[in-house]
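sorry to bug you again but im stuck and you know this stuff better than me. what follows is a protein written twice so to speak, once as letters and once as structure tokens for the fold. mainly i need to know what kind of three dimensional shape the backbone takes. anything you notice is useful, everything is just below:
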Amino acid sequence: MAYRILKLNSISVRGLDRLPRERYEVASALSDPDAVLLRSADMHSIDIPASVIAVARAGAGTNNIPVAKLSKRGVPVFNAPGANANAVKELVIAGLFLAARNICQAWDYARKLQGSDEEIDVAVEQGKKKFVGYELPGRTLGVIGLGAVGVEVANAAHLLGMRVLGFDPQITVQRAWQLSSGVEQALSLDDLFARCDMVTVHVPLIDATRGLVNAARIRLFKERGVVLNFSRAGIVDQPAVVEALNAGKLSAYICDFPTNLLKEHPQVIALPHLGASTGEAEENCAIMVADTLRDFLENGNIRHSVNFPEVVLARTTNSTRLAISNENVPNMVGQISTALASARLNIADLLNKSRGELAYTLIDVDGQVPPSVTEQLRKIEGVLTVRAL
């Protein structure tokens, strides 16, 4: 079976090479695609063909994808968490130095110097006092969100000699194991802001995180604090930050999201969304998401999905795999098993998991599964998709 992949953005060749040409047709114009592969294209404004059974983004955030709409259709949305973590971490660490040493302001000052070299030397000695900074060891950094990026940032800052406070009530066991033992736990967001000199955010933009850095929390900050935002613009209340900068409560805002309000403010360094903009990060994201998409299409396994549970089951020999997505309602597995038993089909292995309102089941059935059985399964109330692999 050949799979058709609609590509909405340029994707690293190293990622595309993970999809064998004899089994995958990948193009930017396809009718009836099986899956969509993208980076930053806005899928909210396009009609998604009914044939699409998966959407995969070569990056971390999925704000450009209508996840809720796809969930109702039983379509998993995949991303590449952690693939660009090192790139973002390096830029965040650079942001700490930019803020602490007033590097951009000093560079701008030096570029505008005029006169002879002797006159410039005099101006340098007179002007450098305006850009006196501070060193990072002994300063306290608060890291909000301890996922792939947050953990790397926290560990790197700790190695630089900073005191690091972390806050993430949903930290996974995997990330907790990766976190340096020197990183301390903040009891709450308010606790973190009250104890920090600098705060960096590494959370997705959802309703619960919109405006997470706001006027009330900035008031808790130590004087001359620094906010860094390399996640999503909406996580920070920009007018509140500008007001705090003008009042002297904050000394700098370092972010990846220029706006008219921010871009010319003397205490704002707004970069053009460079967080994951390295060749290595683009390759890593493309490779991860291509592998994830291929495993789903060929084996039904789900990894790195933002809307479905992780469901991975080793294939049973001489069997047909059924991959079923459904609403998370009682007796769904019972109804599926009954339908298979009625068709005298033996279940060799089964794995069912749920996440919120969605559930997903992988079933290895001995021998072949007749099309009439898959049609019967599709008719079960609450079943969203059925595939026989």
Remarks:
- The chain has a mean pLDDT of 95.
- The CA atoms of residues 254 and 269 lie 5 Å apart.
- The chain has three domains: 1-83+277-308, 85-96+136-270, 309-389.
- The chain is about 35% helix and 20% strand.
